[in-house]
Design goal:
45% of the residues lie in helices and 14% in strands. The chain is α/β, with parallel strands linked by helices. Helix 11 packs across helix 16 and helix 14 packs across helix 16. InterPro entries: Glyco_trans_1 (IPR001296), Glyco_trans_4-like_N (IPR028098).
Length: 483
């Protein structure tokens, strides 16, 4: 070690480059190996795995599957919860984390729990605090429109002094880890972890750098390893950890080395009363937006139209497909820089802009298959489960967080490796199957989504989790009141 250290001092840049590249290569290889074998292990038959979990009996802290698959009974004990969230949705533009937060906390408040949310408006504009029944939303912004943690904690301490919170919950690092250490009872829901982000960076480099005449330095990929190490070090600052996919839960236990009993899986859910199967609404939507009646197949994509959501991948794959299959049509819902690029593809593409939840439900009903081309294999994209609720099959990359939690069987849709060639082949499979097969797959998706991805089941699971953390009596399952 001494000799190695001495050599580094005499030629620090060269030694650092060799050591760092070696570490990075090993990290990428091990990461890729783990993440690529994960989908192979997650191949249960539809619904049978959920049925097996429903027969679970014991301590909920020992579960290694989503709490959503269990059926919790009515609860009469009320909670007082403090919540830290990145932003609070004001219009149709916010991303999934914000919409998830609003759906969850409104549902918990409706169940009689006292919820206090410390956040900022998603539009970064001044707004009055929200007080609607049991739901209280406090906007504590700094000059840049982000959460002012000191101000948020002042409000938090004032409310806590008038009756202590039963538990504190943060959406990812909305409550910084150095603040979390000061809070005795805190749980965090992770919507993305750096172990998965390394996977993202790898695919972005492979896809986008290959299109460059002179490949760019892999700077972001090199920065990922130190950030991963830092994240693993500060994760124990949070007492309990909630993951929104099975694969993330495995990573936190096996790689981040967190205690199994401190890691729990609760899947995201969407409002099942807003995202519904409604073919007539889909027909009206297509007429309103001028979708030609003679198209053979309508595909759809929704979300922020930015690079890391995979739009360069879809752009290239779809432009390839239309050269052979002229009757295929693409509806693009969302806003962002790639909207203009899509409009350049010609009459087979319609860019709709951002849609509100009601319009989104109509959009899903108007398509035959939903495409999520994301290059970000982290979290649990709400658009996938919204489309499934509306009875649509999905076409998505084969990331562990997706195939291990959402597309758990081929009857729910199609997966591909995140490259143009694999994507094109998957699109061809969709076209060969045609509308009738897609409709059958869509009904299977709807049944599965209703069993796992509803706001009701999500809120029920979170409710039981916080009750369990407050009183271990609620950690036992089933209780006499459970269904």
């Amino acid at each position: 070690m001494g000799v190695r250290h001495q050599n580094c001092r005499s030629s620090s840049s060269g030694c650092f480059s060799i050591r760092y590249s070696t570490i990075l290569t090993l990290a990428i290889l091990s990461t890729s190996f783990y993440l690529f074998i994960s989908p192979v292990r997650h191949v249960p038959e539809p619904f049978s795995w959920a049925a097996g979990q429903a027969r679970f009996s014991g301590d909920l802290r020992d579960t290694k599957f989503p709490w959503n698959s269990l059926c919790f009974g009515q609860n009469y004990e009320k909670l007082k919860l403090a919540v830290f969230s990145k932003t609070w949705p004001i219009d149709a533009a916010p991303g999934g984390m914000e919409r998830h937060a609003a759906t969850l906390y409104k549902a918990l408040a409706a169940r009689g729990h006292e919820i206090h949310v410390f956040t900022v408006p998603s539009d970064r504009k001044p707004h009055l605090d929200i007080h609607e029944g049991n739901l209280h939303v406090y906007f504590a912004a700094n000059d840049h429109g982000s959460v002012n943690c000191s101000l948020a904690f002042e409000i938090f301490n004032t409310i806590n002094a008038n009756g202590a919170f039963d538990y504190v919950h943060t959406e990812s690092v909305s409550l910084p880890h150095w603040r979390a250490k000061m809070v005795p009872n805190v749980a965090v829901t992770w919507h993305g972890i750096w172990y998965e982000i390394m996977h993202s960076k790898l695919f972005e480099e492979l896809l986008l750098n290959s299109q460059e005449v002179s490949p760019r330095p892999v700077g972001e990929l090199q920065e990922a390893m130190p950030r991963l190490v830092d994240e693993i070090r500060f994760f124990p600052s949070y007492t309990q950890h909630i993951c929104i996919s099975n694969s993330a839960g495995e990573v936190l236990v096996n790689i981040y080395q967190l205690p199994q009993r401190n890691v729990h899986v609760i899947l995201n859910g969407v409002d099942e009363t807003k995202f519904v199967h409604d073919p007539e609404a889909g027909i009206r939507f297509k007429k309103t937006h001028g979708v030609p009646e003679n198209v053979s197949l309508v595909m759809g994509v929704a979300g922020r139209l930015v690079r890391d959501k995979g739009h360069p991948l879809l752009y290239k794959a779809f432009s390839t497909i239309t050269k052979t299959y002229a009757g295929v049509y693409l509806l693009v819902a969302g806003s962002g820089p790639w909207g203009k690029r899509y409009s350049e593809l010609g009459p087979n593409v319609k860019v709709l802009g951002a849609l509100n939840p009601k319009e989104l439900s109509e959009f899903y009903n108007a398509i035959d298959v939903f495409i999520n081309p994301t290059l970000r294999p982290q979290g649990l994209d709400l658009t996938l489960i919204e489309a499934m609720h509306c009875g649509k099959p999905v076409l998505t990359p084969n990331y562990p967080s997706i195939v291990g939690t959402v597309v758990v069987n081929k009857s729910f849709g199609y997966t591909f490796s995140p490259n143009v060639e694999s994507f094109v082949e998957a699109l061809k499979s969709v076209i060969r199957d045609g509308p009738k097969v897609l409709q059958s797959k869509g009904m299977a998706c709807r049944e599965y989504a209703l069993s796992m991805f509803t706001a009701t089941k999500m809120a029920s699971a979170y409710e039981r989790f916080f009750l369990c953390m407050k009183n271990t009596r609620f950690c036992q399952y089933p209780l006499p009141t459970d269904c």
